[in-house]
Design a protein that fits this description.
The chain has helices at residues 8-22, 39-42, 78-81, 85-88, 117-130, 143-151, 156-164, 170-173, 189-199, 219-239, 250-259, and strands spanning 32-37, 53-56, 68-72, 89-94, 100-106, 136-140, 179-181, 204-207, 211-216. The protein is α+β, with helices and mostly antiparallel strands and 270 residues long. It has 2 domains: 1-115, Class II aldolase/adducin N-terminal domain (L-fuculose-1-phosphate Aldolase), CATH 3.40.225; 132-270, Class II aldolase/adducin N-terminal domain (L-fuculose-1-phosphate Aldolase, 3-Layer(aba) Sandwich). The model has no long low-confidence stretch (mean pLDDT 98). Bound molecules: 1,3-dihydroxyacetonephosphate (13P) and zinc ion. 1,3-dihydroxyacetonephosphate binds next to loops.
Amino acid sequence: MKEILKSKFVKEMCSVTANMYRLGWDERNGGNISYLLTEEEVAPYLDLDKVIRKIPIGFEAKELAGKIFIVTGTGKYFKNVESDPETNLGIVRIDQKGDTAELLWGYKDGGRFTSEFPAHMMSHVARLKADPNNRVVMHCHPTNLLAMNFVHELDDRSFTRSLWQMCTECIVVFPDGVGVLPWMLCGNNEIGEATAAKMKDYRVVVWGLHGVYGAGKDMDETFGLIETVEKAAEIYMLTSHLPRINTITDDNLVTIAEAFKVNYRKDFID
Ligand code: 13P
Ligand code: ZN
């Protein structure tokens, strides 16, 4: 067997959690990531017949039966992942019934996957239907985006428009816009279902007064998506209380979206 700590997927989890921590998106145990892996990717590193323990999921994820994910642990700090991946991360396979996760590696101290596992798994189901190449779901608490939640109405259309207007290339990076949920209790199936419902249409879902979910085909794309949203929110927070002299107009938005040939939300343009 090859050494799993040297695998591409463990290294990617280490570097992305470290980056997110340094950007201030993941204080304490804030944030969580799930990354869909193929059997071919994992097989050189793990005996797929060896299940360390079984962890109940608390809902049925039948569509994900047999699928393998590397997932951050609940209560674990992103700042610690790089120095101890085997305690802070776990690799789980969803069993055939869809209600149990089989632990194949990690959570060495007896831990388990993130409390936001329902939102992650339900979002994977929703995104895989929209895009079979989707592999990553990422949740974090970016500072400016969170700040913006307190001073901006929480509505898909107006929130998306404000972000698009903050950086010229926003509409190219998230032409599908941003879905916004009101404040909800986190860590349960209900917020998971609400997130997945938004994920049918959006790759970015804001959890009102809490944080953000992003989904994408790989780590870079997903990270870049949240990074771009957070940058736009930063510009918003730096400028929204000042007199606005210049604006990216709706005509400008259409011009750039058409030049980059992206399928943008036409109903979000005035
Ligand atoms: P976990 O530590 O369970 O991953 O929760 C962190 C979080 O951000 C909850 O929304
Ligand atoms: Zn959170």
